[in-house]
Design goal:
The chain has 100 residues and is mostly helical. Helices cover 55% and strands 10% of the residues. The longest helix has 36 residues, at 64-99.
Length: 100
């Protein structure tokens, strides 16, 4: 089975990547930069899909700086959601159920 890195090296992804870069006019869609290294970011992931199988609306051009920032924000959001789920929601639902 190919690694994710191998999949990103495939001609299928390279072609798809160029389509998205062209659509976005080779500019970061977050800060507008055209002079930094550009990445094509997957805004979501679906198990079993190859990187090139995503619809246009799930792919966006980001410069390397914005890409790192976005991934950091997503990681932090997942952490916060996890905290809310385990600490906040359980206590709120437990309390609310006690009122019924």
């Amino acid at each position: 089975m190919a690694s994710y890195t191998d999949l990103l090296r495939s001609p299928h992804w390279q072609r798809r990547r160029l389509e998205i870069l062209d659509r976005d006019e080779f500019a970061c869609q977050r800060c507008g930069s055209t002079d930094k290294t550009l990445h094509v970011d997957h805004t979501c992931y679906q198990f079993g899909k190859n990187p090139w199988e995503y619809p246009d609306e799930h792919l966006v051009t980001l410069c390397v700086s914005c890409h790192e920032t976005v991934h950091g924000l997503r990681k932090r959001l997942k952490e916060v959601i996890g905290l809310l789920h385990t600490d906040f929601f359980e206590s709120v639902y437990g309390y609310a159920l006690g009122l019924l």
